[in-house]
Design goal:
The complex is a heterodimer of chains A (447) and B (216). Chain A is of the alpha+beta class and 447 residues long. Chain A is 34% helix and 10% strand. Chain A has 13 helices and 12 strands. In chain A, helix 1 runs antiparallel to helix 2, helix 8 crosses helix 9 and helix 8 crosses helix 10. Chain A starts with 7 loop residues before the first helix and ends in a 14-residue tail after the last strand. In chain A, 37% of the residues are buried. In chain B, 32% of the residues are buried. Chain B is α+β, with helices and mostly antiparallel strands and 216 residues long. Chain B contains 8 helices and 5 strands; from the N terminus they run αααββααβαααββ. The chains are: A alpha+beta (447), B alpha+beta (216). Chains A and B meet through helix 1, strand 1, strand 3, strand 4 and helix 2 of A and strand 2, helix 4, helix 5, strand 3 and helix 6 of B.
Chain lengths: 447, 216
């Protein structure tokens, strides 16, 4: 392979991909790990870093080794068994030995081994990763504190160099507050020029963390950043695609009742994440962190300044601060009886309510909802316009049987979309889809 | 070669050998980074960026001639190996990392070919490979490893997670194996032969203390 050639990496993964196909070949009969939703995991590769997920029995290990031998024979690749590691994960104790002859190392329970820059291990304490990271951070600190840098320079180093080792880790691991504090202390010391003795901070940390436009120095806050990174993991994990790791994310999301029902097991919509989740008590601390991080970050993810129709249509219906109900809280799926009906019919964004072909709001029947025509108790109104294009005022529509049209002045653009839901007590309960105007401001309710 | 009975979904790559369009050339040039070290031919990427419109058709024409005839200019194909110091004792050769600098013309050529391969990759490469693939992330691997260990315990599976270390994988893969694999994966013969001929004429030279040594 030629280094530096743009084509080489692709040729390389094409060649190593053969190993994946060989592993999956039923002829060899290598058994992998069955995943919660019926998937199977046998191998995963990042460039040349390969991890095999094998059903734990000596005969299966032998089979896998045979395949590896075959692959190495054909491709001239060579496995460095001394630098490879194996981790046993099960409720039971391992009762057999394998791999001593080639020098394979078994990582004991509670200990970790380095895999793609992160410590991985069975029952690995959270501190293991943190300690390694702190070591790396302190090493960098020694190098950088020898240079006489200006304050701006030190901030740059802190953001770009010191924190870098933490961000990589934080994308799939959550530091606890104590750890964040520790990192903050070390970085603070560096910024204020403390060499041996701890330096006295001249400005409060919270001030430093403000963006430069607001008078801060734009230093990244480890706590906020790690939350955002964890939330990102959840978003990516619940996005479309059937990769095995997503299957595990979804399995966990099911367990803690994150509302992510889509049409099939592999097609949940990210938008679901905007729905206020009804959380079951989460046992696993990591997942508590992930979901906690998500809840923290979620409100900031909806766009406040909508400038065009396309953006408005993309807005989520639930958990969106621009769309409030009568009690001035965003619509959540959990607290709303009909919200679940909406959700189940995959109606989760403004665009799902909008019929772009006819330029009008969809009727409930079109949304796939069935309401009884006899239920006339709900006399509330749904009227609609396209507030972002007031000149193209469209006729308001009747939605289903239970929503009537209050005859607005023709030609007057309406700012509101009203939806009526039947409340739990059988009383009409108005939910307003408040004005989603180009300026994004929410106006007072009038009904 | 022991790939005989392996079942791999065949992928047609007829479009790979269609002539390159000048616009593709321009797009490719724009995608390549500027501000890199000077190569042995002295042509900077900045030049290609500035003159993309004028240069692209001529360059692509030359490429097509090269690809069709199977003869690649040894000059374009030359690589300059430079040593970059790693940490540790610099009297030891193992503490120097060699990097190969390839001419920018060669990079433009290879990048146009790469663009076509990239479109096909998602169909061929199994989702388990996360390196160099768009939309994939290294964290897919680390997260999977962590969660799989937990899942194995939760679901009462016995799992062995085997983390393999391939020795100098990038350098060791045999060309014969690669081309057999490409053919197996359904890459067009003509295309495979072109890649083969491009790599066949590769020559390299080493710079030591700023002077360029003879080719080898």
């Amino acid at each position: 392979m030629r280094q530096g050639c743009p084509l080489a990496p692709y040729l390389f993964i094409l060649a190593t991909d053969v190993l994946g196909y060989m592993m999956a070949d039923p002829k060899h009969g290598v058994e992998g790990l069955s995943l919660p939703k019926g998937g199977l995991m046998r191998d995963q590769t990042f460039a040349d870093d390969t991890a095999l997920y094998l059903q734990g029995s000596p005969s299966n290990m032998d089979k896998a080794q045979d395949v590896l031998k075959l692959f190495c024979q054909a491709s001239m690749a060579k496995i460095n068994w001394h630098k490879s590691a194996a981790i046993w994960a099960s409720k039971k104790e391992k009762t057999w030995n394998w791999g001593e002859d080639v020098g394979l190392r078994w990582v004991p329970k509670g200990e970790g081994t380095r895999y793609l820059g992160i410590q991985v291990g069975f029952h690995l304490p959270s501190e293991a990763n943190f300690d390694k990271m702190m070591l790396a951070l302190k090493g960098k600190l020694i190098n950088w504190s020898q240079n006489n840098l200006s304050l701006a320079g030190r901030i740059l180093v802190a953001n770009q160099v010191l924190f870098a080792s933490m961000w990589y880790l934080a994308t799939c691991w959550n530091p606890n507050p104590r750890m964040c504090c520790q990192v903050r202390r070390v970085v603070k010391n560096f910024i204020w020029g403390g060499k041996d003795a701890p330096a006295r901070a001249k400005v409060k940390w919270d001030m430093l963390a403000l963006p430069t436009a607001q008078g801060g120095l734009g230093i990244i806050n480890p706590k906020t950043q790690s939350k955002a990174l964890l939330a990102k993991l959840l978003v990516r994990g619940l996005a479309l695609g059937g990769e095995p790791w997503k299957e595990l994310v979804r399995h966990k999301a099911d367990q803690i009742r994150l509302p992510i029902h889509g049409k099939g097991p592999n097609t949940p919509d990210i938008n679901w994440l905007f729905a206020a989740p009804k959380l079951k008590r989460i046992q696993c601390s990591m997942w508590k962190d992930i979901v906690g991080a998500w809840l923290n970050v979620r409100p900031g993810l909806t766009k406040a300044d909508l400038t065009n129709m396309a953006e408005t249509l993309k807005q989520p219906l639930f958990g969106n601060p621009s769309i409030l109900n009568t009690s001035s809280t965003p619509l959540g799926i959990g607290g709303l009886r009909k919200g679940c009906t909406f959700a189940r019919s995959e109606c989760s964004r403004v665009k799902n309510l909008w019929n772009s072909k006819d330029n009008e709001w969809k009727s409930l029947s079109k949304l796939g909802m069935s309401y009884h025509a006899s239920n006339k108790r709900c006399k509330d109104v749904i009227t609609a316009s396209i507030p972002w294009r007031p000149d193209e005022y469209t006729s308001h529509i009747q939605v289903g049987d239970w929503i009537s049209n209050p005859t607005p002045n023709p030609g007057t653009p309406l700012d509101w979309v009203y939806f009526a839901f039947e409340s739990a007590r059988g009383k009409a309960n108005v939910i307003e889809f408040k004005k989603i105007a180009p300026n994004g401001r929410i106006q007072a309710t009038t009904h | 070669m022991s790939l005989g009975g392996l079942q791999i979904p065949n992928f047609g790559s007829g479009s790979f050998i269609l002539p390159l369009h000048p616009k593709q050339g321009c797009d490719t040039i724009q995608a390549l980074p500027k501000g890199k070290a000077l190569r042995h031919d002295g042509v900077l990427m900045e030049f290609f960026h500035e003159c993309a419109q004028e240069v692209a058709p001529t360059v692509l024409k030359a490429f097509m001639v090269m690809l069709n005839s199977g003869e690649t200019s040894a000059y374009i194909n030359k690589g300059l190996i430079t040593l970059i110091p790693k940490t540790g004792d610099h009297a030891r050769l193992s503490n120097w990392r060699p990097i190969t600098l390839l001419s920018n013309t060669y990079k433009v050529l290879m990048k146009t070919l790469t663009g076509r391969v990239q479109t096909a990759l998602p169909h061929i490469i199994k989702p388990n490979q996360t390196g160099f693939m768009e939309g994939k992330n290294i964290l897919d691997n680390t997260f999977m490893a962590q969660e799989a260990l937990e899942w194995a315990e939760e679901s009462d599976h016995d799992l062995v997670l085997l983390l393999l270390n391939f020795e100098k994988a990038f350098d060791r893969i045999k060309w014969g194996f690669l081309f057999t694999a490409l053919a197996k994966l359904g890459f067009n013969d003509t295309w495979v032969n072109r890649v083969r001929s491009l790599y066949h004429t590769v020559s390299s030279t080493i710079t030591v203390n700023g002077t360029i040594r003879p080719d080898f």
